[in-house]
Amino acid sequence: MKKSIILPALLSIIAVSCSDFLTKVNPHAIESEYYFTDESSLKIYTNGLIRTYATEIKDLLDADKYADTNAWDVEYLFYTDRYGVSSSTSWSWTTLRSINYFLENMGTADVAPSIMAHYEGVGHFFRAMFYINKLQRHGAVPWYDHVIDPANEEDLYKGRDDRSFIAARILEDLNYACENCLGDDKFRIRSTNINKYVALGIKARFCLYEGTYRKYHQLDLSKGTPWTAEEKEEGNMYLRECVKACEEIMDSKLYHLTDNAARRQTQYRDMFTCADGCSSYTNEFIWARDYDETLKVYNKDNSINDYLTHAGHFIWALNRDFMLTYLCLDGTPFTSKYTGKDYYSATLADEAKDRDYRFAQTVRTPGFTRENGTKRFPPDLACAKTGYQPVKWLTDAIHDEISDATYTDVPLIRYAEILLSYAEAKAELGECTQDVWDKSVKLVRERAGVKSIYPTEADPYLVDYFMNTVTDPVILEVRRERGVEFAMEGKRIQDVKRWHIGERLVMPKTGIWISGIEQNLDLDGDGTPDNYVSAKLTEKSGISVLAINYNGSTLSSAGHYLSEGDHGYIIAYSAFCEEYSWPEKKYLFPIPSPDITLNEGLGQNYGW
After folding, report:
1. Least confident of 13-17, 227-231, 465-469
2. Which of 146, 199, 243, 359 could form a disulfide with 355 if both were Cys (CB 3.0 to 4.6 A apart)?
């Protein structure tokens, strides 16, 4: 009975499934000797695979919306005890079939050996990308390096290969891509194609993930057993491979940070609002998604501006505990200027003064303007419940009401990531010297106007933030820098998981200091009331209102309240956090129950 169920299911999975980019001529519906004839056919096919992984702004935001850095206004089922194996998804293998099909059949194309090797490298790159996603989500999974024959029951009922085996195969594929993908101008133009440096960038990202994951996790959660001595030692190997990949990019001299000292108060945000970033930032964008108004190629869904400015949509608001990690311009921690935890009583204006220029280029601060600088826009508590309302990715107000028309180019790998991955891997190996620091972290900080100070003492706030799992001052400072530089870019959840501080994800979200309820507030500092916090009202003419609970009031179903009752810092979405927990098993998602029903050999992840 089971075989009669699984065969049709798997037949449907391995059937034709390519992106709409390939719908005019479907390579799966024709003989490979007919389709793969020249370089153009190889490029068209792999462009379809690029679209599988090329990301839109909202995808990056969504990837981080439940991170420790953010306060999101919808409960996340995965963080609750109600999430179970029947809730799990993402066990599709269709994309892998497309990749393996390409690798098995591309050899019929009549192209130069170097071009053939390049596109074969691209195929290996995409197989690595597929398995990176699977490994990070589910841990151990079955490894397939060929197209599955529906008559091959051994493949159909294959169990999961060990996590360490999958990681090794991923590294093999990435090394193949790094060695064979070409890196000349033809393949680097506008940063949109897979090339040698894109492969090196993903290799650095994966190896940093795997090396730190092995270091900070004591269990292989696919099995619930400790790492073997060999697997643990392999962690350092992955870190060294990360360093090698970063050094190859750095030594190429093809990339550098965009840094104009006169524009440091704006140049960071400019990268995320530029409609032609793939031309303007070829020195910094190693891989990017190119959107074009002329060709009507745009980010889907509503305008990103709409999501960042209107309370009627699910909205993004950053978490104060994270915002407190931004340094002052003199290179010292903001929290160090206060006694104990008195920094929580600092106003938004106090927080914004003399801070890392990325602070005001990431969230609204007093004096923030739009409409070509002609109109001030204060934080809107009705929209961003913590008061930290994003401006990163936010373009000018003329785009606010335009649906389905965001043309901002999206960087997928930035040179800053290479510098900080290099610094982090070196720090984890105990090798982040002053020289390493100066050619990595120092450059990123100075671009943001921050004085670079090589760390010799651990910041107590960071030690606490990272759950007392790290006291090394260099590692802590590199983590600080990574969080600030890549806020709202979809990297944070995986960072938190590899660092083994998942408890941070389910902690209460905090916001700005509010001097009192039932009174007008001037968050912009221009003398005009712009916000109101109330336990009685949900609306007030001309002013944004944050409804809270106080003195028996239950006006906020999400559980917003102030730390001191009628004043204090905002605590947002407490009703959600009361339902949240982080047992060890949640570092992996479970294998979906329908798939285990079809193939009992898959087994289940630890704790599920």
Report:
1. 13-17
2. 359
- Using left for φ > 0, alpha for ψ between -120 and 50, and beta otherwise, residue 568 falls in left
Closest CA to 506 of 577, 561, 559, 563: 577
Tell me the per-residue pLDDT of 222-280, one tens digit each, with 9 for 90 and over.
999 999 999 999 999 999 999 999 999 999 999 999 999 999 999 999 999 988 888 89
258 within 8 A of 274, measured Cβ to Cβ: no
∠ CA 240-242-243, rounded to 5° = 65
Phi, psi of 318 (to 5 degrees): -85, 160
User: What is the pLDDT, as a whole number, of residue 18?
Assistant: 32
8 A C-beta contact, residue 558 and residue 529: no
Instruction: Tell me what pLDDT residue 399 has.
Output: 73
User: What is the residue type of 479?
Assistant: R
3-state secondary structure of 466: coil
- From CA 468, how far away is CA 212, in angstroms rounded? 16
Q: Say if CB 213 and CB 205 are below 8 A apart.
A: no
Is the sign of the CA dihedral 395, 397, 398, 400 positive or negative? positive
Task: Specify whether the CB–CB gap between 378 and 292 falls below 8 A.
Answer: no
Name the residue with tokens 């091959």: 152
Exposure of 15 by Cβ count < 10 A (0-12 exposed, 13-18 middle, 19+ buried)? Answer: exposed
Q: Which residues on neighbouring strands pair with residue 355, listed in sequence order? A: 328
Length of the chain: 608
pLDDT-derived band at 24, boundaries 50, 70, 90: very low
- Could you give the C-alpha distances from 547 to 137, 144, 306, 518, 571, in angstroms and in order? 37, 53, 22, 10, 12
Q: How far apart are CA 390 and CA 359, in angstroms?
A: 10
- What's CA 76's distance to the chain center, in Å? 17
Alpha helices, H only, 502-547? none
d(CA 590, CA 326): 35
* Residue 474, CA distances (Å) to 95, 248, 459, 481 in order: 40, 23, 10, 11
Helices (H), 389-447: 415-428, 434-438, 441-447
Separation between Cα atoms, residue 164 and residue 233, nearest integer Å: 12
Q: Residue 360 pairs with which residues in a beta bridge?
A: none
Which position has the token pair 């309370």? 311
CB burial readout 431-446, b (16+ within 10 A) else e: ebeeebbeebbbbbbb
CA distance 396 to 381: 20
Say if CB 285 and CB 256 are below 8 A apart.
no
Residue 288 phi/psi, 5° resolution? -150, 160
Task: Reduce the DSSP state of residue 546 to 3 states and report it.
Answer: strand
As a whole number of angstroms, the distance between CA 475 and CA 464 comes to: 14
Angle at alpha carbon of residue 414, lines to 304 and 492, rounded to 5°:
65
Q: Greater confidence, 502 or 23?
A: 502
pTM summary value: 0.93
CB 469 within 8 A of CB 500: yes
pLDDT per residue as tens digits for the range 330-340: 999 999 999 99
At 533 the three-state DSSP class reads: strand
pLDDT at residue 459 greater than cutoff 60? yes
> Of all residues in the chain, what percent are helix, strand and coil, respectively (each to 5)?
45, 10, 45
* Spatial distance between the Cα atoms of 420 and 168, rounded to a whole number of angstroms: 24
